[in-house]
UniProtKB/TrEMBL annotation:
<protein>
    <recommendedName>
        <fullName>Nucleotide-binding protein GCM10009564_25640</fullName>
    </recommendedName>
</protein>
<keyword id="KW-0547">Nucleotide-binding</keyword>
<dbReference type="Pfam" id="PF04461">
    <property type="entry name" value="YajQ"/>
</dbReference>
<dbReference type="InterPro" id="IPR035571">
    <property type="entry name" value="UPF0234-like_C"/>
</dbReference>
<dbReference type="InterPro" id="IPR007551">
    <property type="entry name" value="YajQ/Smlt4090-like"/>
</dbReference>
<dbReference type="InterPro" id="IPR035570">
    <property type="entry name" value="UPF0234_N"/>
</dbReference>
<comment type="function">
    <text>Nucleotide-binding protein.</text>
</comment>
<dbReference type="InterPro" id="IPR036183">
    <property type="entry name" value="YajQ-like_sf"/>
</dbReference>
<comment type="similarity">
    <text>Belongs to the YajQ family.</text>
</comment>
Length: 162
């Protein structure tokens, strides 16, 4: 019998982030507490730019965006938001979306699977994803359960389960 396998990835659906950004922009334009403070959120290249005339307001813009991401099913671990910076008369926050598992994080996950996972489970790092294979599908499900219990500082998804 051939090995069963699945891939561990850390990917974010760009369209979901875009939808969350558009919803946040709409809410910011309509909310009373954001009137007249120059609050906005938009794409700036591949980063997300949030700006307002005070540090508290720009943090509130970030909070609105985060709540929209949660509603769209995007993990906040994928959002890498910087600190508010004063630029002229405005405060700005730049945020980026983290994609892929770094080699160090992939090694960390592979070591955890080797140490605590069922015997006979093999891991293989392939670029920015990690392939887990085993003869037993039950072992693969045990690995998924093990990883879901862990609290990593990056988002994990399990794809290509076969």
């Amino acid at each position: 019998m051939a090995d069963s396998s699945f891939d561990i990835v850390s990917k974010v659906e760009r369209q979901e982030v875009d939808n969350a950004l558009n919803q946040a922009a709409k809410e910011i334009s309509q909310r009373y507490d954001f009137k007249g403070v120059g609050a906005s959120i938009s794409w700036s290249g591949d980063k997300i730019l949030m700006q307002a005339n005070s540090e508290d307001r720009v943090k509130a813009v970030l909070d609105v965006f985060q709540s929209k991401l949660i509603k769209r099913g995007v993990s906040l671990k994928a959002l890498d938001a910087g600190e508010p910076q004063l630029s002229g008369k405005e405060y700005k926050i730049f945020a980026s979306i983290k994609q892929g598992i770094s080699p160090e994080n992939a090694k960390k996950v592979a070591k955890l699977i080797r140490d605590q996972g069922p015997k006979g489970v093999k891991t293989q790092i392939q670029g920015d994803e990690l392939r887990v294979s085993s003869k037993s599908r039950d072992d693969l499900q045990a690995v998924i359960a093990l990883l879901k219990k862990q609290d990593f500082d990056f988002a994990l998804q399990f794809v290509n389960y076969r």
